[in-house]
Amino acid sequence: MLAGRSYHSGRAATNRSATSGGGLILPPLRVNVVAYAPTVFRHCQHCEVAFEGIGLGERIHRAEAADALPDDLAADFQRVSDWVHALLDRHPGRVAVSVIDAASIEGVWKALRNRLRRFPAVVIEGVGPRTAADLATADAIIDTRLSAGSTPGPAAAGSTGRKEAHSPTAR
Fold first, then answer.
1. What per-residue confidence (pLDDT) applies to 46?
2. Taking a C-beta distance cutoff of 8 angstroms, is the pair 123, 130 a contact?
3. Which CATH code for domain 5-40+70-147?
4. CB–CB of 84/33 below 8 Å?
5. Less CB within 10 Å around the terminal CB: N or C of the chain?
6. Is the pLDDT score of 50 beyond 90?
7. Does the pTM of the predicted model rise above 0.70?
8. What distance in Å separates the CA atoms of residue 33 and residue 106, rounded to the nearest whole number?
9. Is residue 84 very low, low, confident or very high in pLDDT (cuts 50, 70, 90)?
10. What b/e sequence results for 10-33 when a residue is b if at least 16 CB atoms lie within 10 Å of its CB, and e otherwise?
11. Half-sphere exposure of 6 toward its Cβ, with a 13 Å CA cutoff?
């Protein structure tokens, strides 16, 4: 899982929506996870092709990702990653998750806007953003919101209308 990328049912987010019982099409519930994430820098496109051709590309990126965070932050990110995958498996097509690096500009903005002081943090958008300090609380809020069938539309969530899928960039 990469920071700065949106996930929807285990894939990059698309425009598909879940259908509720009465045939009403509901947009997925938007969940932002702000966490310290491993940063991996890429080489130029030509070098990447050459490294992949000789079988070094994946090995280099794994080594960089393994050294990108201290052990305690890497363990936190792995816990968040496992939680996101379990959430997407439990609610296929009903949630769209964005993982945001807390050290990025967007992460700092989300932290200021939602008054986040500890990471990882989960911001569940609805009528107003709700922040869950721990993943169990976030699970309960998400399950309640989805069981009530009250996944908000973009206007209710205060969306700026920007696309969900982010391009992976080096930070």
1. 81
2. yes
3. 3.40.30.10
4. yes
5. C
6. no
7. no
8. 12
9. very high
10. eeebeeebbeeeeeeebbbbbbbb
11. 18
